[in-house]
Amino acid sequence: MKLLIDSANIEHIKQINHDYPVDGVTTNPTLIAKENRDFYQLIKEIRTVIGESKLLFVQTVSEATDAIVQEALEIWKALDKNVVIKIPVTVEGIKAIKELKKQGIKTLATTVYTPMNAFVAAKAGADYVAPYVNRIENLNGKGTEVVQEIKQIFTNASFTCEIISASFKNVQQIKEVCLSGSDVITVPPTLINQFLQVSSIKEDVERFKLDWQKSIQGKEG
């Protein structure tokens, strides 16, 4: 299972990429806008921080198919072709995914709320789909069940498309989708840092240290 950083903040990406075994970064227009920087400079810097071998996801903002495809090509070329293009699952977006598939450009179908959203995207040629777990929950749905159902549909249809579970409010939701068959999780830096925030770990380390020191002192005495 892959772990991605869901952020466009350079300092946060640097910290998580340095400390944790991550596989790449996902961005979106909202995260990019928060940084108040030139778009292409920012995404190129993210690429520099994480290196060429890790995944980088960048989203289009155009609405019509031709414009989405053109924007995707510009992003693809700007990042030396080593990028996955995020496209919302609108009708125009699905048509763009079909066209980009023909051109050999990898895509992620985003804004996925239902298993059938994911089915259509995978059928169109998307390499990844991103169900919005917490946003589904906010609409009185069950995000974990949506991930499970997408996984079952993909297995039944022999799709190679991978599920990138996104939109989390806590670590419990992340754990649940990990158990539900998600291929990838994309997580904000604040939640990734919580993965190891268990008070007992620090207490155990301190106890081991004290026991070791007592043992050494006893041998020296």
TrEMBL record:
Localisation per UniProt entry: Cytoplasm
InterPro entries, sorted: Aldolase_TIM, TAL/FSA, Transaldolase_AS, TSA/FSA_arc/bac
UniProt-listed GO biological process terms: carbohydrate metabolic process
Single Gene Ontology MF annotation: aldehyde-lyase activity
Keywords, comma-separated and alphabetical: Cytoplasm, Schiff base, Transferase
Record-listed E.C. numbers: 2.2.1.2
PROSITE patterns in UniProt: TRANSALDOLASE_1, TRANSALDOLASE_2
Broad EC category: transferase
Protein known as: Transaldolase
